[in-house]
Amino acid sequence: MTEANAAIGIPATSASAAKPKRAGSALISRLIAGGCILLAWEVIVRMFAPAYVAKPSNIVMVIPKVMTDPLFWNSTAQTLGAVAQGLILALIFGTIIGLLLGRSVTMERMLRHYVNGFYAVPMIVILPLVTLWFGYTGAARLATIVFAAVFSIIINVSDGARAVPREYLEVAASFRSSKLRMYIEIVLPAATPYFLAGLRLAAGRALIGAVVAEFFAAIGGLGHFILYNSRTFHHAEAFVGVLLLAGFGVGFEVLVNWSTKRFLPWYRRDDRGT
Amino acid sequence: MLRNTLSRRLPFFASLFAGMALWEIVGRNSSPAFMVPLSETLARFWQLVDNGQFPAQFLDSATLFLTGLGLAIVVGMPLGMLLARIPAVRLALDPYIMTLYATPMVALIPFILSIMGFGFAPKVLVVFLFAVFPVLYNTVEGARSIKPELIEVARSFRSSEWSLWREVMVPYTLPFCMTGVRQAIGRGLVGMVAAEFFLSSTGLGQLIMSSSQNFDTSGVFAMILMIGLIGVGLMRIGSMIENHFARWRV
């Protein structure tokens, strides 16, 4: 009896006692690990690599210079503006098409394989085509971003629209609700978590699409800033751009996860797609 | 039965046919510099196969892709399980793996180019970087979700570390790894084309680039169609692998 109590009791008390302590020690071990990574990077580059290769000390030194460079902010604004614009377009079209696919069996059977097919196409191969169609302009970048983002939204929204419990729709139908109201008041809210999951994927892909388009077509932006600086052997400056891109990637991920937890707490996130 | 499958298949074939017809009609009615009909695209593709360009470049790309993906799996899977087994290290490295998972790896290509130059190794590195983080991330997440009871039971039967891995860790984590592998296949393909575009031009990427530089629009369309179909095929293989291992995943 006492043994059983002890067996149950020990993990419970140790877990509750260890919790606050563990959170603090996690932070410390993370900081230590980060320090080790930076140190290893610095030492390896100093020992084996040519002087122009980016190392943490150089990167920290050039940050003030890059931060006061209007070209850097200009590039950032251009890339982010294009990503935002492309995401909005992809959201509008993706949601409409996704709802149609999710709620109509015929549409689903007719268009599903096109959507899946285009989703599987590595977005980067369309670059030669979009530059052919739109020239070496911002429009080509926008087209790449929309292509990169729209299909993951379609797929997720249609999955969400299909997951609406049938009873809800039946109740709405028996109260003679109109089709449009049913879409707006039942299907759309029910699909929101899926929509957010799609948005998270789409944002990552859109960012990649923007950078790739800027590499390929030499359109001004963060991707081009990185390319230009690394070509002229200003690796540390270029790496500040990479850090900013990584920050946006992580920031968006965190934002979507947080808002899913905050506003849709009943929804357990389930990873899908790439 | 037959009627049922027919009515299910009919919209698929009808829309496939409609799509092909639409491509053909639009292609015939627009400037050949911008859009090429399907028939011409297929003819051009056959030409590329016939003169040996496509098979040679395909083999080149496949070598690159499989080397990079293979390395990513060989490194990512054991490393992920090891990390999950040593909680202190996993806790310390978790945020960095997450960050790298979410970082657009394309941004590193210019650095790889100017440090490693042209050649096979830098391109393999690009494919590897694209593919390894999905494998690593999913493996860690999977191995982390092993119920502590399973390990405790194994421990109370005095199983050695080796048999704990063989009987509990690996079988439990494999389905999650396979989700990572499926994602890695998709990302690795993007990495492959990116490496062939922006590093030394070889393989299918080179074929599409040279077509576009020669204003050979039908060649561009033929290559996009083929790489697209390869992408679809690889995705299907990926999901098949994933489903095969996911039979008992809850």
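qc> Chain A is about 85% helix and 0% strand.
qc> done
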